[in-house]
Structure formats: structure tokens, C-alpha cells
Amino acid sequence: MEFFKSIYSWYRVLKDYRRISVTNDLAINFIRIMSIVTITLLLAIVGFIAVNGMQVLSWDFIFSPPKNNFTEGGIGPAIFGTISVVLLMIFFAVPLGVFAAIYINEYIFDKWYSRIITVSIHTLAGVPSIVIGLFGFGFFVLFLGRNLDELLNTGLLFGKPAMLWASITLGILVLPLIIFTTIEALKSVPEDHRNAALGLGATKWEMISKVVLPQARPGILTGIILSISKAVSETAPVLFLGCAFFLPELPVTNLNFGAFVIPMINPSEQFMYLSYHIFALATQSTNPTVTLPLQYGTALVLILTIVLLNIFAILFRYKFTKTFEKVRGY
Amino acid sequence: MKNPKIQINNLSVFFNYVQALNRITLDLPENRVTVLIGPSGCGKTSLLRTLNRMNELIQGFLYKGEVFIDGINIYDKSIDLVKLRNTVGMVFQKSNLFPKTIFDNVAFAPRLQGIKDEKKINEIVETVCTKAAIWNEIKDKLQTEALNLSAGQQQRLCIARALAAEPKILLMDEPATALDPISTAKIEELILELKSNYTIVFVTHNMQQAARISDYTTFLYMGQLIEFGKTTKMFTNPVNKQTEDYITGRFG
After folding, report:
1. In CATH, what number is assigned to the domain containing residue A274?
2. Residue A13 needs a FRET pair 20 to 30 A away by CA distance; which of A28, B20, B60, B185 works?
3. Could you tell me the pTM of the whole model?
């Protein structure tokens, strides 16, 4: 009897061991396979585009405009248009987003309506970009622009799709991202430092501007860079708002200051956009197969831009966490 | 007591309707060290933080009663919080230097007060750092990161930074709890030097420390003032049984 008992107990031990080890191994292998599949997919897409795109990639491709009915030339105007729109977007979205975040996190965090505002911003983040694009067209161009033209007697200056409206609409699209990353950055500033500043006789705004914001700056910059990479990769919002298939000239106006002539980006003009340019090459040209290498090249430039921006964001985040490790003393 | 610096009159404090202090009446003398002792959660820190109105930052704070500093009710509507917090400096349990240079940390309050003249700021920094007995250690590295200092130096720099706001009263919330014995000794020495010019209110859990540095002792228990008196008397011949038990370590 004792013998059987001992055998049974060994059996239990082995069974338990098998149960634990088998499911554990299964889970680990499953996770491993899934990660490999994901990474392979990513590498396949990027590699495929890189191999095909490298053939056309050159300085000439980056700087020159499309030629010969899109079958030759480069993407210079599209890059220029993308940069101008994104710059204008930063100009609108960053102050709005950062100050909104400061208001939410520093002034009304304990009020009942702060939750309503936060939920609204979450909802805004979930609105499809095409809807935001249509809203931009309906609100800014048709309503605001047309009425402004009528009011100021400017003919057709504001009431048409233009870079100004495109960048504001993109700004609305990235606003939640900027607000949430800024709130996170503000939250990570230790409460001790706020107390220290207030205890030394700082007003609330002095505390925010002299202690909280300098510490949160790398985190906020991370958010701005991420929002730029989001804006660069979007197509839908600019679709209705002045994004052009092809423009013979850059959206630039020369401003005359006496003897100086300064070329300035003209926000009332139409523009070309990188992501839309891929769409245009693929669907709008007379012979899409001929433009195929150019499509790969454009896609490669777009992906490289976004990867570079994200690397910058990671570097800033790294610096941010480093500072706080020191502050917290570990 | 004649001409007390701080008069606390029937003060009750609530956080989210939970009472933290219960009808405290207390006079604190000028240019003396008064130590607040009592078990954790007895309201020492709450009492300390009502003196520069830092409790108002906490959600659900309610108070009843009056606090006078130099005969002025600091909970009056006409009180300028910035001025109050300049008069009543505070040093916290954990050193909370900003991630800036040593110089910028100490110059924080003078700059807030609108002093633009760099020469004058330099002077203030040197004076307060000398007062805080840290000048000799940091004078060669004023432009280096303050967080690279040792924990004890950081805490003394916090005291220097608080002194730079030119306070009359210094509130210290267990400033030496997280420090090694040598740094603690330095801070205690510093407090004994500072008390000729400043009214110091000090919170500690360390009975020996309280006996060493303070002139007056306040014993709080469950939000109530149990006993207040000269330290020499309190530690040798306490009136109240609870005080005696706490000081001798029988409870708390």
C-alpha cells in the first residue's frame, strides 16, 4: 500500500510539473511566434519599399518637381508643402494643446468638469480623420472663410481650400495627442517640487512656468514630435483642403522690404503633400505602372521621415526619464 | 507668554470631513525652537502646514479658528499668500531641490521677489549659504547640478534656499529623518545657530533630537494638544501621563 501511495505522489508531482511546464512553454512559444510574425511583417513591408525605392532615391529626386506627366522627376514640391503645412500646424496646435493641458492638469484637476473635458478630448482622438477633414472643409472653408470674405470684402481669399485651413484641421487632429502627452509630462513632475516652489513664495503661474514647465519640456517635445509624425502620415484631412495633384510653382510669395526680397510661405495657396502624392501617383496618373518606381521612392521618403521623427521622440523621452531618475534619487 | 510670534486660537482642521486637529490653542515664542512631537497621524504636519497655508493645496481642506502671526490673522481675506510664504519658510522631509544648478536653486526666491541685480543675488546666495553652513562645501561648484550633492548637503541647501526668501519663521517637517547621523548632527547644529534670528517650528519623531535642540515642546495626540511647555520641564517632569508614556517610549 505504501508503495502505491509513493508512486501516486510521484505521479502527482510529475503531472503538476508537466502541467506547469507544458502550458508555460506553449504560452512562451505562442508569444514568441506572434512577435516574430509582427516583426517580419513590418520588416517585409519596409524592406520591400526600401529595396524598390532605393533605385530612384537621389538628391535630384528629393529636390526636383515631377516632370513629363509624373513619369520622371522628383517630389521636391511635395516635401516643401508637407514641411510648410506641418510648421503652420505646430504654430496653431502646440500653444493650444500645451495650454489646454496646463489648464486641465494644474487648474481644474479636482473639479467635476475636468473629467467631462478629458472624455471629450478622448472622443476627439477617436474621430476618423476623414470626418475631421470634412469638418474642416465645411467649417473653415465654407462657413468661416466665405463669411470672412464677405465681411472683409476680400473676394475669394479665405473661402477656398488652402494651406491655412489644412494646417488648422491637421492641428485639430493632433490636438488630443499633444494634450495627453503634455498632461503625462506635467503629471510626472514631483509634487514635492510644486510644494517647494509655493513654499518659497511663488504664485501658481510662477510655479508652473519656472518649475513645472522646464522639467516637463522634454516630455512635451516628445508629444510634439509624435504629433508631427502623425500629421505627416495623414492624407484624409488635407484631401479637401487645398492638397493639389500637381502645382507648377511652390506656394511661396515674395515679400518686398525695400531692397530685400524675402520669400515667404503663402498660407492662402494650395500645396502638394507627400502622402497624397503617393495616392496621386498610384491612381491619378495616366500610366500607373510607369510611375511605380516613383511611388516606391516617395513611400520610402515618407517612411524615413516618420522613422527619423520617432527616433528623435525616443531620444527626448530617454532624456526625460533620465532627469526624473535623478530627481527621484534612484 | 509675552508677545508670542505665533498665536493659534481654537484651531480645528478637517480633511474631507475627517478631523485632523481638534481645537488647538497654542502660543509659540519668538526666536525659539519649538518642537512638535507625537505619534504618526497625530496632526503634527497638519498643524505645521496651517502656519503657511500649504494645507489649502490639499483637496477637502476645511479649518475653523484663527492663526495670528505678529498679531495678524493669516487666514484673513486680505492676506497676500506670497508675502505670507516669504515670511514663513518651509523645509520638507525629503529634500526637494529643483533639477537646476546650485546657484539657481538658492537664487530662486530672490529672483521671484524681483531682484534683478546679479551682484545682489550673488551676495544673498553667499550670505544664506554661509548661514546654512554649506558655503565652504559648494562655493567652488555653484554652477553644477544641485542633485549631484549628497543627501545631507541637499537638505542643508534646501534650508539655505528657504532662508533666501528672508523668512522670520522656519517650519521644518522632519528635515533630518532621511539622513545619516553625521548629516543629522550638522542640521541640528545649524538649527541651534539659526534660532537666534528665526522662530523655528520643528517636527520630529526622535525624542533625543527633540530634547537636544528645542526650547519648547508640544505634544500632540489624536489631533489634540496634550501638553505644551519648556522642553527641560517636559522631558524631566511632564504633567500629563500620556506625555510621559510617549516620551519614555511606552506607546506611540
Report:
1. 1.10.3720.10
2. A28
3. 0.82
- pLDDT value for B1: 63
Biggest CA pair distance of chain B: 56
Contact B149, B156 (CB under 8 A): no
CB contacts of B113 in chain A (<8 Å) are 201
Per the CATH hierarchy, to which homologous superfamily does domain B6-94+168-247 belong?
P-loop containing nucleotide triphosphate hydrolases (3.40.50.300)
The 10s digit of each residue's pLDDT in B12-34 is: 999 988 888 889 898 888 888 99
Per-residue confidence band for A330, with pLDDT thresholds at 50, 70 and 90: very low
Pairwise CB contact (< 8 Å): A323 & B96:
no
Instruction: Reply yes or no on whether the pLDDT at B201 is more than 50.
Output: yes
Instruction: Find the closest chain B residue to A109 by CA distance.
Output: B59
Distance from the A201 Cα atom to the nearest Cα atom in chain B, whole angstroms:
4
CB contact under 8 A, A199 and B162: yes
Q: Is the Cβ pair B99, A110 closer than 8 Å? A: no
Count: domains in chain A: 2
Please name the residues between 96 and 155 in chain A that touch chain B, using a CB distance below 8 Å.
110
**Domain co-membership, A43 together with A112:** no
Largest CA distance in chain A: 110
C-alpha cell, A109:
484637476
Question: Hey, of B80, B82, B128, which one would you mutate to test binding to chain A, going by the most A CBs within 10 A of its CB?
Answer: B82
Identity of residue B14: F
* pLDDT of A120 strictly over 90: yes
Segments in chain A forming alpha helices (H): 2-54, 59-63, 76-102, 112-126, 129-136, 146-152, 163-187, 191-199, 204-207, 213-233, 236-239, 274-283, 292-328
Residue B101 is given by DSSP the state B
Residue A326: per-residue pLDDT: 65
Q: Which positions ≥6 away from A21 have C-beta within 8 Å?
A: none
Angle between helices A163-187 and A112-126 (to 10 degrees): 130
